[in-house]
Amino acid sequence: MLKTEKKQRIPQLRLRVTAAAESILRAGHPWLFAESIRDQNRVGELGELAVVFDRNDRFLAVGLFDPESPIRVRILHAGKPQTINRDWWAARLEQTLARRQDLFDEGTTGFRWINGESDGWPGLVLDRYDRTLVLKLYTAAWLPRGEEIAALIAEKLRPGRMVLRLSRNIRKLAEARFAKADGEIIEGPPMDRPVVFLESGLRFEADVLRGQKTGFFLDQRENRHRVEALARGRAVLNAFSFTGGFSVCAARGGARAVTDLDLSSHALAGARRNFALNQDVAGVAGCPHEVAQADAFEWLGGNAKRKFDLIVLDPPSLAKRESERAGAIRAYARLAGLGIEHLARDGVLVACSCSAHVTAEEFFGAVRAAAAGSKRMFAELETTRQPPDHPAAFKEAEYLKAVYLHFGAASA
Do residues 229 and 249 lie in contact, with contact meaning Cβ atoms separated by under 8 Å? Predict the structure, then answer.
């Protein structure tokens, strides 16, 4: 049985699950769904530790309980019983940080310290932007112990500031029951401007209080580096550009011109600022930078005469739920086809997807089909997945993928 640090006045929350769920948990999956629970000894409270037993009343796992979520328990540990106390949390944090110890040098001060379930912190991520940390919670199960975990992180990493970000689906509950708000500074001084951090020596700003994700798309770091290596002498189109990360890297790599295309004027203003932050970099200072505010699908469909030597297609998730998967696959194929129409001879297409509901095989297949349908000769340069600071330890965590295609002229 799981040991606890203090004696509890109420009995420990004990769950028994279906045979199928037992197998899934033993295989390392970090989620226990409500329909898989066949018995529990009492009503559970948000965020308490739920102990899962198998059919023979043997300890199976322990996790954070959420009585309102379809994912009823987020598994923290499976296998032999362990004492879950402050020392346990501190040891887990130490192990998680150690995995990033040799990944980055002083030229990169923006990366992910904790990547949710894949690091043993289900529904919690921690990103670094220079001396500012962003703690983002995706499940309400962390709310009752949020201050404890934040204090542990602050003690270990000594940040200049820590910001709390909350998934949209838990914000009302967080404010009503825990007096916590999205974008709240929980450690350090107030701020009135974005944080500036380094990525391989380039400066970028992150809107850690209100920006998408935790303020920047840190997960595309390695793809930005690849684009930089491909950019020399090329005219580059960065579609769904956000704040121009791919474009700044392409400029440093020697691009002869870059165009940022995004529907958001706020994002494009951020792209201009990111270029301004790097004017001491010769390639960036000397690269013409154009912005176009438009829907990318519409712009690509209506400006067929514009040709580029390198096109990056990095849309937001096109399938936020399983029911949208088939439509998203068709949309990815259409988007790739539109991009190919704008590629000059000897052009490179970089197509990305961050839709977890669309598998890598489905996405790559859609892009390859569009390439084949273009009647142009092409070669696949490589495919990529998530970077090492965004590990994916189970299927549902595998969301990011990209494919690089090099195109020649139309075939006969």
Answer: no
* Residue 192, amino acid: D
Is 204 among the domain residues? no
Question: Residues 405, 281: one domain?
Answer: yes
Q: What is the pLDDT of residues 334-363, one digit of tens each?
A: 999 999 999 999 999 999 999 999 999 999
User: Tokens standing for 233?
Assistant: 């002498």
Interatomic CA distance for residues 311 and 350, integer angstroms? 6
Find the radius of gyration of the CA atoms of the chain.
23
Domain range for 73: 13-78
pLDDT for 52-80, tens place per residue?
Answer: 999 889 999 999 999 999 999 999 999 99
The DSSP element (H or E) to which 90 belongs, if any, is helix 86-98
Same domain, 74 and 92: no
How far, in Å, CA of 269 to CA of 165, rounded? 23
Residue 108 shares a structural domain with residue 143: yes
Q: What pTM, to 2 d.p., does this model score? A: 0.94
312, 246 contact by CB (below 8 A): yes
